């Protein structure tokens, strides 16, 4: 299994994502430049990551310009064919703008950029990203964003619930959901979601920033481990 | 020379900020009277900001080479230090005080942008940012407005750029009510031998301007008179530059990529005085000249006058000299990043800067005559000891009585905006991007970033207590250097070099200049003692408050940015208490000195008193022993005693892991003096009980005084048997105090 990492002008968590995948998880990375018009051979057994940052300077609106870039046309096609795509932070915003994920990410409730460790819990095991996570555990993962307040209308929320598309919620250190554990005012503490096809994921917290013992933050590894193990077992099974 | 331009008079020169004798020198250098464009060029290049004319004589007394320095101070855009493993570190601090006081958001943002450009123009990738901020009284609504704007400006720029803001300092004092200080520092790394110099070698080589287009922003001194010369009114031009961090991110990546092509001869960022400064400094450095066609410079608006193009301080631009024949390599990279890259001229061999506009020569000046170290003037100003200096009271002799019980004092003291958590500020900064920041999850006295691929880390600190410097500029500056070094030593590092940002009043005010001269002397002596040469920095004069009947300089604020090397990340020592039952020990001579302390200012209401106790030799011995103890793995934590004294130090140690402490003050000292005094050269450490005898033996053998304060508890705080409550309650107060001041 390989990872594609998309790099836009203004991406700034690309290094961190590549470091996490290559150095911590030991997997190969294919860098995808925003002007690229192919996925450089990435296929069904691989995963495309859209890292955080300020693609195109967040001009107009976070992620609003990135969705029109050449590489995103390929990513959209790949996702619609069932390929695995994950967006973190600005990547999540881009996937929402590209309509690969429902909802929007609004300015944080306190109107400020917030960078700190938060706790999140997985609310379903029914995706490759969350399959191996403990539903009762609080995972410490940092956030760093100004526009991370997830919002959608009631009907969309209803369908997200009905289809088990809610992946992560902000919680306290004991894995309890509470308004005070919600750092940015997200609807129902939502920190991450997936699409109906369960192959496109978006989350505001940065698991790639929580992989290194030297930084005393390692819970992000659990997400990558689940993602890698599950995708590899699917493609392994498919190979037979 | 064209006859189109009128020849200005000495009065015009004075309006541009030049002195009559400077105007005469210019006429002598040129052999004729300068035209307006030329006069504008001289006025900015000979301004205080570019020429350091009133400070350079003193700056030259600082230790500026030796140690691990790869270039001497002033040779390049920033200092360069050998950090081993084939890597070098470029670092520098710079002020953006006046723009930030007018427009805090853009002023602070462009301050951050400017200092990072100084680093990546050398070929180094900026990997961390720090800052040093001074604001007025926190209860003033103007202060709140400025704090919010500055913090947002620093955050928005650095966050978008993807460079973590890892540390800094913030003080509030009414001397900054009108004139705040915003000092920004950048730290970058580059492979030794892969740096780029700001030089225009090789006549015939092409000169490029890259990055953003040039607009009318930031044209300062020259704007006044432009009504005489241009059809456009300059009155409404913004005097504060506007930053675009996205453009800077592209410029950063493109510049570093362009260097790898080998096509670049020299590169310099455009900050103050824009094209004028970069063309003259690069030419003067190489002993060459340039022919520049100003009409080839991409501009944001039509019909910009030559002097406007020359003086524009539009952000996110670079001047690059490339090897002739390799232009396409440069152009390919900038095209990839969708940035403008225009050839605007060529390097010449006659030492002259010839600026043309539509084929017409509009200015012809000697590059060398413009720059610091060349023809720029050098002055020494008059000094006079201020009246207040000898009148300061000594609180150790003339001691006010302890007004209240210790708990009440501690509670009120720990509400001082200078002591409470900076959480409200630092959570607005991305401190983690690039995943190197070690101190995010366990703070240390210095901010630490590890260097991936090596065992090493860099420890960095910005420090200056201007109340001490005001009380005694010589000693206060020594304390600023020493505290910065102490922070690095307590974190497990070895201090290696200093960058400074000297924020002072008007140099033509003899009392302000006395402060400056003495502070530089103290800084030099301390840097020599600690073997940390000064790699460069920045001087900011004219920081003052204007009242109806007088002006008053801000407290002298020589901010130190210190770089240290941690040889092995295993040596990193943090400030947090680690385990219940650990012993808490204060190392260093403690005289219970409360002069100039937060305690004396806030609780005893003594605004000004003498500088606190400091002895350079004791400081050196203390740092050496702490370093030895850390290498011997004796310490569980180390935290230097600074503002707020031992009580604040213990509280800060306890809060990260929510551990309390039980301490007894020295029976030979009055309890309030021991708890809240800010005498220098002290460090509070914790150790496992079984290492106590070893620690005591070492300190005794070294003849270094120490006091066993007590032990770490599960949460309760007790001082001299008095119940001080639980650490968690203190932590809540500490964490939320700043937002309560600013937002309620």
**Helical run tally of chain A:** 5
What order do the helices and strands of chain A follow? Answer: EHEEHEHEEEEHEEEH
Biggest sheet strand order of chain A reads 2-1-3-4-11-10-9-6-7
Q: At CATH's second level, what is the architecture of chain A?
A: 3-Layer(aba) Sandwich
Could you say how many structural domains of chain A there are in total?
A: 1
Low-pLDDT windows of residues of chain A: none
Radius of gyration of chain A, whole Å: 16 Å
Given as residue ranges, the uncertain stretches of chain B (5+ residues, pLDDT < 50) are: 221-237
CATH class of chain A: Alpha Beta
The CATH topology of chain A is what? Rossmann fold
Please name the fourth-level CATH homologous superfamily of chain A: Class I glutamine amidotransferase (GATase) domain
Distance between the termini of chain A: 16 Å
Number of strands of chain A: 11
- The helix count of chain B comes to 26
Question: What do these coordinates show?
Answer:
The complex is a heterodimer of chains A (240) and B (744). Chain A has 240 residues and is α/β, with parallel strands linked by helices. Chain A has a single domain (2-239), classed as 3-Layer(aba) Sandwich (Rossmann fold), CATH 3.40.50. In chain A, 25% of the residues lie in helices and 24% in strands. Chain A has helices at 14-24, 70-80, 90-97, 154-162, 220-239, and strands at residues 2-7, 28-33, 47-50, 84-88, 104-106, 114-122, 139-145, 149-151, 166-171, 190-194, 200-203. In chain A, the strands form 2 sheets. Chain A has a 9-stranded mixed sheet, sandwiched between helices. In chain A, helix 2 (70-80) links the parallel strand 3 (47-50) and strand 4 (84-88). The two termini of chain A are 16 Å apart. The mean pLDDT of chain A is 96. With 744 residues, chain B is an alpha+beta fold. Chain B contains 26 helices and 26 strands. In chain B, the strands form 5 sheets. In chain B, strands 7-9-6-10-8-11-12 form a 7-stranded mixed sheet. Chain B has a 7-stranded mixed sheet with strand order 21-23-20-24-22-25-26. In chain B, helix 8 (141-161) packs parallel to helix 10 and helix 19 packs parallel to helix 22 (616-631). Chain B is globular and about 85 Å long. Mean pLDDT of chain B is 94; it is low at 221-237.
